[in-house]
Write a structure and sequence with these properties.
432 residues; four-stranded parallel beta sheet; 12 strands; globular; Triosephosphate_isomerase; TIM_sf; isomerase; triose-phosphate isomerase activity; Aldolase_TIM
Length: 432
Amino acid sequence: FFSPVICCTMSSLYYNTYGTAAAAPQGHRGGALTSSLLAGAAAGFVVYLLAAGSQPSTQLHSTAVRPAATVTSPTVPAMGRLLRVPAAHDVHMRTAAPMPLAAHQVDSRFDAAPLSQGSNWSPMLLLSGVTAVAALATFIWRATQHGMQPQAIALAPYSSEDMERRRRLAAAEAAYRNGGQVAIRRPVVGGNWKCNPASMQELDALLANINACDTSKCDVYVCPSPLHVAYCCDRIRNGALITPQNCNFTGLGAYTGEMAVEQMKAMGISQVLIGHSERRGEFGIFPMDSNETLATKLKYILDAGMKCVFCIGEPKAIRERGLDAVLAEMDVQLRQIYHLLDPARVVIAYEPVWAIGTGLTASPEDAQATHAGIRELIAKRASPAVAQAIRIQYGGSANAENAPALSAMPDIDGFLVGGASLKPEFADIVSA
């Protein structure tokens, strides 16, 4: 009885303290839930062993005429229990209190000691109660904290080794500039509305905000929710591009819930966004968009004559291991598309997963170091010309306050904006 109680309460306690707090910014809620269940199951199994060990072993009383065979039980070798296996025809089992058996009763031939003898359930009752109360208290605390806005916390800067790498990247960038090999990259700012807004009146206000943006010195695109794409197509007046948030990888057909680029082209749409962390599994969708799937999507988009915003990014655990670990992850996410990187038709949006909607921020210098490292990867894997011409946006909680400092960095070519794109300050980000 107590094993499933401990299992459930420990799972709830583990998930509420670790899973939602630590895993959510990293995009691994599914893994946190699995580990929570495993932790609870382990706790339940331990309680089961304690319960089994506290119960008295079954008493066997025999008055065998001939010696019985003695064998070691294969099921409990560690306990060292011995089972007596007497011959059934010449062994009489006696009970603690012999009495005649009724017609419907069956002689069990075994006399077990009462459950209450030799067992102690008090520790398990206490453990069950403590874990249940702790799980409930933690759940209530998490529920009260859910509506609070995260505080802006700056991560520790990169290490001294990373600083040296940053200086080397800056020197390489200066060499390119002095040699006249740097392409002039036009800034690009995108607004990802995700699953917003709720009403058409709010949607009209967002469209008015987009139309108020100055697009003379900056390319602008906006990503409405799928239900709003068609409505928005005819209501943009300043050249901003309507960019759907996703597409399938196989075209038209019996694919429920999907969008094909052929349909987008027929609506006058020329660009689509793929690879956002929330499509890569950050909020628990399954199957998630893998690197292989995204490479297939990108080829499908380009073959159809469309443009693409391709998102990449790393979770907090990788960021905390330093710049080399971050760039190794970026290399993994880009490895299958290096040969598809056409600067005229592909924009890379670097969005550190740990900075999306969490309040965590990267300094302009750290963001620049990562962008320069991504550009160096592209120079090695594709070509220096592609690396210098392709635009790389920053997507880590950009807003009107930090946009000017970020946009001053030489390898940051604009922003992919989330929550701030739903506010009037989006026009200020475009102007930055």
